[in-house]
Specification:
The complex is a heterodimer of chains A (about 150) and B (about 90). In chain A, about 45% of the residues lie in helices and about 20% in strands. Chain A is α/β, with parallel strands linked by helices. Chain A has a 6-stranded parallel sheet. Chain B has one domain. In chain B, strands 6-7-8 form a 3-stranded antiparallel sheet, covered by helices on one side. In chain B, strands 2-3 form a two-stranded antiparallel ribbon.
Chain lengths: ~150, ~90
């Protein structure tokens, strides 16, 4: 994991995993593609999308309540980006062009994602982590969730 | 939470400045955020995650500061360009 920032996060009873992912992804969505390593991608996808849409509505409310013109423009851009973000829990080798790819570690080992941010939501070995982050650009962020 | 690895520093830093509230924060309570204009990562307090107003407006202001640099100042009331005599204001 040469040249990458590593962040360790724990939920500690505050919010759910999809909630935390959505809020962390809000800032990271502008940096490029995102990969989420999940035990059950098909289960995480709908809950993550629900939290994402909920967050989007909250940002829309923030935009409606501000009078600052430039901030309104920035929030409009952010909302447009949020609306157009594509999520996929399909096998990465079948759908490699998505914005947020959710897959198991074994699927990512077959097709290493080229992304700027990777969320690892369950324990994986160091070797697996090194292999899946091999194509990440220097300065990317790896977020590991602790159980 | 803890940022444990930095690409350019063999020893992890202990503190950073929050990109949203500008306070000095311990990296044990920080989260990675957007990228700055020169490719570095900006950090923010974890506490801002709980307040959508701080999260959305904070990153919007951060982007504006990165785009326009120190000439510009974003305030609650509006937007003020701080360039000597050529200042313009949107309120």
């Amino acid at each position: 994991m040469h040249g990458l920032y590593v962040e360790e996060r724990s939920l500690n009873g505050h919010g759910s995993l999809p909630w935390d992912l959505a809020h962390h992804m809000y800032a990271r969505q502008f940096s490029g593609k995102i990969a989420v390593v999940a035990e059950q991608p098909k289960l995480l996808l709908p809950t993550l999308r629900k939290q994402w849409l909920k967050l989007m509505r909250q940002v829309q409310r923030e935009r409606a309540s501000t009078l600052n013109l430039l901030r309104i423009n920035e929030l409009t851009d952010a909302i447009a980006k949020m609306q157009n973000l594509r999520f996929s829990a399909r096998d990465p080798k079948d759908d490699f062009d998505t914005d947020v790819a959710i897959a198991t570690i074994n699927q990512f080992l077959v097709f290493a994602p080229m992304c700027r941010t990777m969320y690892v939501t369950y324990p994986v070995t160091k070797e697996q982590l090194h292999l899946v982050t091999a194509w990440m650009a220097r300065g990317g962020v790896v977020v590991k969730y602790r159980r | 939470m803890p940022i444990t690895c930095f690409p350019d520093h063999p020893e992890p830093r202990k503190t950073a400045t929050c990109a949203l509230c500008k306070k000095k924060i311990l990296l044990a309570g920080a989260a990675a955020g957007m990228q700055t204009g020169d490719g570095r990562i900006a950090f923010a307090c974890n506490g801002h995650f709980w307040n959508i107003s701080q999260l959305a407006n904070g990153w919007a202001d951060f982007t504006l500061r990165e785009q326009y640099g120190p000439l510009y100042m974003v305030s609650e009331q509006g937007f003020v360009m701080g360039d000597g005599g050529n200042a313009w204001t949107l309120r």
